[in-house]
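Re-run requested by the PI after the first attempt was lost when the workstation crashed. Everything re-entered from the original request form. Ligand of interest: zinc ion.
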Amino acid sequence: MRLFWRRGKGFTLRTACTASAFAAVLLTVCRSGTAGAAIGASSASGPATVSVAASSRSQDAPSDEMMFAKRKRLYDEISAKTGLDWQMVAAIDQYERTISRAHPKTRPKKDDAVTGVFVQESVWSGNLNPEPDDDNPSSIRFFSGIGRDGSGDGRADREQDEDALYSVAVQALQQGISDDDFSIGLWEYYHNTRAVQRILQFARLYRHFDRLDLKGGAFPLPVGDSYSFRSTWGSGRSWGGYRIHEGTDIFAGHGTTVRSTCYGIVEIKGWNAFGGWRIGIRDLNNLYHYYAHLSGYEKNLKVGDIVKPGQTIGWVGSSGYGRPGTQGKFPPHLHYGVYRDRGLVEWAFDPYPMLKRWEQDEFKMRRSKKTE
Ligand SMILES: [Zn+2]
């Protein structure tokens, strides 16, 4: 493990420093310097038939729908009470949810909870409050706790969806509702620039698509094209010192279309000594999708753009392992890595099972279309 300096917030660490992890960190730190370093887009741009896999949610679709409907009602309610648009409320909630999921032991949520918000008891009731589980809004206020009554039942219940989400939204609004004031309010609550960045990214995604359900996924290459991949998680590599392989290599011809696997925002784009021309995309689950060794980018794509599953983002190449423009030091392939943001650190996990699922889903969908 190594420590890396992060803008404004001191050190963070990533797991064993690999090409992809290192690349991602480097560019998170200095992305303005390299962002937008577009290179000649290959002519293999192909009309990218965007057939987005419906993912594996066909079976549990009704419950998903119900859950999204419940969340939407809650967001509309908090929106009406605070003046924030529902997308911003949803973004706060979704950020909290991703952190709660990453830390189930320290941020336990009930199965039937609608909100993902978790507030520590002492933060809720106030540090010096003799009653840690106090739910009286006035005494909580007296002890400077953040707990409020969002549901109108006269109690400030930490476990209640309306109360929990409303209380955090009100904290974020302490400085005002304009974009700048709101960002400062978020920072003052989380003391974490990454949290602020994520919430603003999520809000942009919800505003762009104007819906909560953004769960689909797609295989990063057009399925059925000639490519090959196997699980290469953790195997050793040599260039740039010993590093563990954090990702899956998908071998394919130079110029094969590379597509976004998720709904997300382009967070990083440009050269990195290890990853070559690469792109990093953040999704609503707080996962960072990393595509490396490209031969070129979709020419209109820039940092901050919103993408959806199946959308062309670039082309397979063999760039990397040297100065900008270096290529051909290894056979052309897409290096695909996924990192989970756990709040202060990001961990890589093996994307192979996800890749397999997306590939199978798309094959299935294609077959069912043929038999219709
Ligand atoms: Zn790789």
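Saved to the shared folder this time. The domain at 2-54+216-371 is CATH 2.70.70.10 (Glucose Permease (Domain IIA)).
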